[in-house]
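Render this sequence as a predicted structure.
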Amino acid sequence: FWQYVPSQKTVRVAKWSELDIFERPQLDFGLNILGLLKEDYVLELKGFAKLDGEETILINATPNVKTEIKNISKISIWVSKEFLMPLKFEIYDKDGNVLGWVMYENYKNYSDVMFPQKIHIWNRLPSGHIFNHITYKNVDINKSIAQNIFNFVPPEGTKVVEIKKKGGD
């Protein structure tokens, strides 16, 4: 995996499998949150809850003993009862404060793939917070892409930083 930040003239290089879920760029913005959490978290069905008037299934995820990821005590996930896709998730710190959340709106079916048209992301930072809105238009699912589109040569003067998992090779 390569992550290029032009403003910092830096590219981060890492093995995707060695990054924990909070180090990986959330290219799917958490749409596969339950799949990502099932290895490192204990999932608990809390019951049913309403979210903005919609019936949802509420699931809490707590880090398992081997994980103990950063300052996270739990993640709450609201899943639509109608189409079983996430509508919202919140990440909590050890003191019960919300560290961040993601909300999904206006799911649309693209060739049997449900995908939200809007995603809202809020993250608390030491200096304040960041709020992002993402809107998808003209979505194509599983469109054929030439392999060479993934070839990346950093511009001259770019610092390449290799990220290795502690204890990794």
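Summary. The domain at 26-141 is CATH 2.50.20.10 (outer membrane lipoprotein receptor (LolB), chain A). Helices lie at 33-37.
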